[in-house]
Each structure stands twice: as C-alpha cells, then as structure tokens.
User: Which sequence fits this backbone?
C-alpha cells in the first residue's frame, strides 16, 4: 500500500506568492511616481503630448492601486 501524506508542504507556492507581491509593489511604486510626474507638467508639455489639463488631473488624482 502506498504511503500518502495529507500534509503536503512545498516552498514553490510561497516563493511564487512572495514574487507576485514584490512585482505588485513595484507596479504601485511606478504608478505613484509617474502620477507625481504628470501632476507637475507644464501646460506646453501637456499640449505637446496631445493631452488636456483635465486628462492629466484625472490620471494624476487616481490612487496608485488603480490601473
């Protein structure tokens, strides 16, 4: 008869979870930085990008966790 254990332990799911959390935090930091940079653009740069001041305000005011 096979020896079957009900207590399976693997490090792979834990490392995958830790890696996914690290990637998520990096995305959030990048979004926060980019939105701070958007908020300080001057009107000429905004116009050069083909955006409106309202577009910039909308994006810059979104919380970092919203894509």
Assistant:
């Amino acid at each position: 008869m096979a020896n079957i254990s009900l207590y399976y332990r693997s490090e792979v799911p834990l490392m995958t979870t830790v890696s996914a959390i690290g990637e998520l935090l990096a995305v959030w930091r990048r979004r926060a930085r980019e939105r701070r940079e958007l908020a300080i653009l001057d009107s000429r740069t905004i116009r050069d990008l083909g955006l409106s001041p309202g577009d910039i305000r909308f994006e810059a005011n979104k919380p970092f966790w919203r894509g």
User: Anything to note?
Assistant: Residues 17 and 44 are 43 Å apart (CA to CA). The longest helix spans residues 11-39.
